[in-house]
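Q: I have 111 residues here and want to know how they pack in 3D. Can you give me a structure?
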Amino acid sequence: MAGNKVREFSGSNFKTEVLQSSKPVVVDFWAAWCGPCRMIAPVVEELASEYEGRAIVGKLNVDEHRQVAIDYGVMSIPTLLVFKDGQVVDRIVGYRPKKELGEIIERHLDG
């Protein structure tokens, strides 16, 4: 795939990239050892491309940035959190089909 649009979030950039974003942000909490995370990864990449300019889609590795996962009560992965204006407005736990994830993102887009 040419040009991966998926952002990499970390403990150090979470506040500026996610909480202070003017656009809705989808954060995929994942880990390398998680089978369902690997299943949803291509879906997350497709969503990042499709919503480019309207929403930000990224991933946060829970093994490398455990405190962020703890702060947001992420108990199982994959968990996708949708942030708007610095607040969690949706929480999706486990694998979901792309169509369903797209519908959830659409609910939080302006206009």
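Q: Anything worth noting?
A: The longest strand covers residues 87-93. Residues 7-107 form a domain with the Glutaredoxin fold (CATH 3.40.30.10).
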